[in-house]
Design a protein that fits this description.
Largest sheet: 2 strands, antiparallel
Strand content: 5-15%
Strand order of the largest sheet: 1-2
Shape: extended
Number of strands: 4
Structural class: mainly alpha
Length: 146
C-alpha cells in the first residue's frame, strides 16, 4: 500500500514500537535516499563550480571534474598540475570569518590568513582563489633570492 507521505509502497505489517509500522521504515528510507541524492548533487555542482573557477583564476584550462572513486588519491578536480584538489561546498565555513576580517582590514594589499590549531605544528594559508595570482606575484617580487 502506498505511503501517505511519498510514492513508496509499504508492506502490510503489525505496527512497530512507534505505532507506524512499515510506513515509518519507508519514510526513513525515503529521507535517507532524498538527502543522500541532494548531497551528491550538491557535491557535483560544487566540483563543477570549483573546476570553472580554477580555469578562470589560475588558467588551468585542463581542469575537469573527476569521476568519484574511493581512495586516497581521488582528487575532486583533475589537472595536469601536480595538485590534489579537494572541493568543499558548505552553507557555512567558520574559517571564512578570518578571511573576511582580513578583507575588511585592507584596501590595497592581498588579504590572506595564516592559521593553525592549538597543538598542531603545521600552518595553513587561506586566500581567495581570485587573489592567487596577485598573491604569488607579491611573494615573488619580495622574496630574497639565496
Amino acid at each position: 500500500m502506498p505511503c501517505a507521505n511519498c510514492s513508496l509502497r509499504t508492506s502490510q505489517s503489525k505496527p512497530g514500537l512507534d505505532g507506524l509500522g512499515s510506513a515509518s521504515v519507508a519514510i526513513t528510507r525515503w529521507r535517507f535516499f532524498f538527502f543522500t541524492m541532494n548531497s551528491r548533487n550538491k557535491g557535483k555542482v560544487g566540483e563543477r563550480e570549483a573546476r570553472d573557477q580554477i580555469r578562470l583564476h589560475l588558467g588551468l584550462q585542463d581542469a575537469k571534474r573527476s569521476a568519484q572513486v574511493s581512495g586516497k588519491e581521488a582528487s575532486d578536480v583533475l589537472t595536469e598540475a601536480p595538485i590534489h584538489w579537494e572541493v568543499k561546498r558548505r552553507s557555512k565555513i567558520a574559517a571564512l570569518a578570518f578571511l573576511e576580517q582580513a578583507e575588511r582590514d585592507t584596501t590595497s594589499k592581498v588579504p590572506a590568513v595564516v592559521m593553525r590549531e592549538d597543538g598542531a605544528t603545521e600552518w595553513t594559508l587561506m586566500l581567495r582563489l581570485a587573489d592567487f595570482k596577485a598573491f604569488a606575484a607579491a611573494v615573488a617580487a619580495h622574496t630574497q633570492s639565496g
